[in-house]
Design a protein that fits this description.
Length: 679
């Protein structure tokens, strides 16, 4: 058994070792990340990540910087090298290589962008200023939706939640450019400051675009009035997590009869699709849009659309525009002190708008068949372990367990990159046109391709994020888990690390995504991806009882102790992610134990395999974060903050107590009857 004292002295020895050559001594754990002054039993996050936090201070361009973000930065560097090579090559016109290089170089060319000022925006604003009739207004909303702006509401195509093999069109509440209804409705000091910064931002955008100061002042009031009305009708982030409440399927006739002030024929015709049934995500929000369409003056309507247009174009315009955008979204909302270097933004444009063309080049350089093979095995091991957990659940009936097994066995697994690459040959990138024209053309190309899939069978092999993305996902309507090449790198997946560390890192990520299929939202979808309860009423009640206990635990977490009093985490909003973290940790641990076949690996760097598993997990969430960003994420991010993904989750897990000998005297300790285990 490791006592706290013994632990401390062992850690001192490590510190000496690590001073010479930390990586050489340990391929799985970066020993310099550990803060030996902190007891793992009191604050595991501080212990496992404290060194990392000291060694990686926030730079002015960061709102948050963690090991996750560090991998994203390394990833950007990999893509930058790729793009620089493309720029130097003489790739022929019309090839993906040429298109990517041209887009990238246009973004880097600040001289041209600054010379052009607001000029590239002019035709788009003139078009908005010319709308008159209701049909023209509705068509203009569609045009902006195709450009990724979301005035009034947003639109998407995806599998029908109640007929999951077919794609359907859905609407989603939107129109609030601050990003969340709370920013319009709350009146605490921090929110009021954000709102004032937003007023400045709107004002700046209009004056930079050539409007008079008087017009800009009026625009501020118009935009805020409209967005506040939309905010008042919007669901909260917690309400948005209830799939049934956000599924309101209407026939096209019903849609037209219910929201009469929108010319839906004109809207869908501009979108390029003949509408059939439509899922209205949030009926109250759409009713507010309908009312606004009737009550707004033509001038107010045009102003609101102009704002949406300028706001979506700003990051492809001159420094004046990007600075204004940074002042609000970067500084005021997230607490960043400085903009990121230009190349990062220039890189992000082709990387997102031609994502699979970039992905195809990326995986050739940065993803090996061996990695794919190891991942296939890991995923299979994790699935076996989750099956064992389902069997062992004491709160679930055999009937529901059988259904859970069915769902688990039909997971559609994607690893690395898609088998079929998207075709960009019809996309025109022309350096003779403005950067804005080209970027909007690429956005529209992507959105029109998505719209074209409406009312057709779901393509289950389509990837929802690109292979170079540092992330993973679970999609309930296709019951799929996806692990792109981008995340299959250290610290998530490390071919040179011992199994304990890999199971604690990528193993937990795999288990996390699998558990999403069984979290408070995911569990409501059946094996075919339909919103269709497969639970007995008793099992559902027992699940909810446990989930509520977990909500209460996280609700007690103080994320920031500010001058206006403590700010608490939102246990209901983060419930799905917290269930997934917990499930991921437990299932990956079982998979790791299974892989040992009864053997006990020798300690490495003084850490047992069990300890290395949890250190591997914590290392994923090491990071520093600004106070403004803590507040922003607490409002808008369904994931708990890194510190709590580690400390609050591990407090429920018995094996963690054993690994680090956590006892009643320690701060990490939670009495057994207070611990909650779901999967
Ligand atoms: Zn998740």
């Amino acid at each position: 058994m490791i006592t706290k004292m013994k632990y401390f002295s062992m850690a001192v020895a490590i510190a000496t070792l690590s001073a010479c050559s930390p990586k050489a001594t340990d391929n799985g754990i970066d020993l310099t990340s550990i803060d030996t002054q902190v007891s793992p039993a009191d604050d595991f996050y501080g212990y496992a990540c404290g060194g990392w936090m000291k060694n990686n201070p926030l730079r002015p361009e960061h709102a948050r910087f963690g090991s996750f973000d560090k991998l994203i930065e390394e990833n950007q560097e990999q893509i930058r090298v790729l793009f620089d090579e493309l720029s130097k090559s003489d790739a022929a016109t019309g090839t993906n290589e040429r298109k990517i290089a041209d887009l990238y170089n246009m973004g880097l060319d600040s001289v041209t962008l600054n010379n052009q000022g607001a000029a590239p925006l002019r035709p788009y604003l003139d078009e908005i200023a010319a709308v008159n009739t209701n049909a023209e207004k509705s068509a203009m909303i569609a045009k902006l939706h195709l450009r990724n702006a979301s005035p009034f509401f947003a639109i998407y195509v995806s599998g029908d939640e109640k007929n999951s093999s077919m794609n359907i069109i859905g609407t989603y509440q939107g129109g609030m450019s601050m990003g969340d209804r709370d920013y319009y409705l709350n009146n605490d000091e921090a929110t009021v400051a954000i709102r004032n910064a937003y007023r400045n931002y709107i004002n700046n955008l209009f004056t930079l675009s050539g409007y008079s100061q008087e017009q800009a002042d009026a625009a501020v009031e118009t935009v805020l009035n409209i967005e506040t009305k939309l905010a008042e009708a919007a669901f909260s982030r917690v309400e948005l997590r209830n799939p049934e409440a956000n599924y309101n399927k209407m026939s096209y006739k019903q849609l037209k009869d219910t929201y009469k002030n929108i010319d839906w024929d004109a809207y869908f015709s501009a979108l390029g699709v003949q509408a059939q049934d439509v899922v209205v995500g949030q009926v109250k929000a759409m009713a507010a849009v309908d009312a606004l369409m009737a009550s707004l003056s033509l001038d107010e309507f045009r102003t609101y659309l102009a704002f949406n247009m300028i706001n979506c174009a700003a990051d492809c315009l001159s420094d004046d525009f990007t600075n204004a955008q940074f002042d609000f979204y970067g500084r005021a909302l997230s607490g960043k002190e400085e903009q990121e270097p230009r190349w990062k933004h220039a890189l992000a444009v082709p990387n997102s708008l031609m994502s699979e063309a970039v992905g195809e080049m990326y995986v050739k350089k940065h993803f090996s068949p061996e990695s794919k093979e190891r991942m296939v095995t890991l995923v299979a091991n994790l699935a076996d372990a989750l099956g064992q957990h389902i069997d062992a659940l004491e709160w679930m009936s055999d009937e529901t367990k059988a259904r859970a097994h069915e769902k688990l066995s039909t997971f559609h697994v994607k690893i690395g990159y898609p088998d079929q690459w998207r075709d960009y040959s019809a996309l025109e990138i022309n350096p003779e046109d403005s950067y804005l024209d080209n970027a909007l053309r690429a956005v529209e190309f992507e959105n029109r391709n998505n719209i074209a899939e409406a009312y057709k069978p779901v393509d289950k092999d389509k990837w929802l994020i690109s292979p170079q993305t540092v992330n993973a996902y679970y999609n309930p309507t296709t019951n799929e888990i996806c692990f792109p090449a981008g995340i299959l790198q250290p610290p998530f997946f490390n071919p040179n690390a011992d199994d304990a560390v890999n199971y604690g890192a990528i193993g937990v990520v795999i288990g996390h995504e699998m558990t999403h299929g069984f979290d408070d939202q995911g569990r409501q979808y059946d094996k075919d991806g339909n919103l269709n309860s497969w639970w007995t009423a008793e099992d559902e009640a027992r699940f909810n009882e446990r989930a509520d206990k977990l909500v209460a635990q996280f609700d007690k977490i103080v994320v920031l102790d500010g001058e206006e009093g403590p700010v608490y985490a939102n246990g209901r909003f983060t419930l799905g992610e917290n269930i997934a973290d917990q499930g991921g940790l437990r299932v990956a641990h079982t998979a790791f134990i299974n892989s040992l076949n009864g053997n006990t690996p020798d300690p490495i760097s003084g850490f047992t395999a069990e300890q290395r598993f949890y250190l591997g997990y914590a290392a994923l969430w090491a990071g520093n974060i600004r106070e403004a960003e803590i507040l922003r994420r607490t409002t808008t991010d369904p994931h708990s903050l890194g510190r709590w993904r580690v400390n609050a989750t591990l407090r429920n897990i018995d094996d963690f107590y054993k690994a680090f000998n956590v006892t009643e005297e320690d701060d990490m300790y939670l009495a057994p009857e207070e611990r909650v285990i779901i999967w």
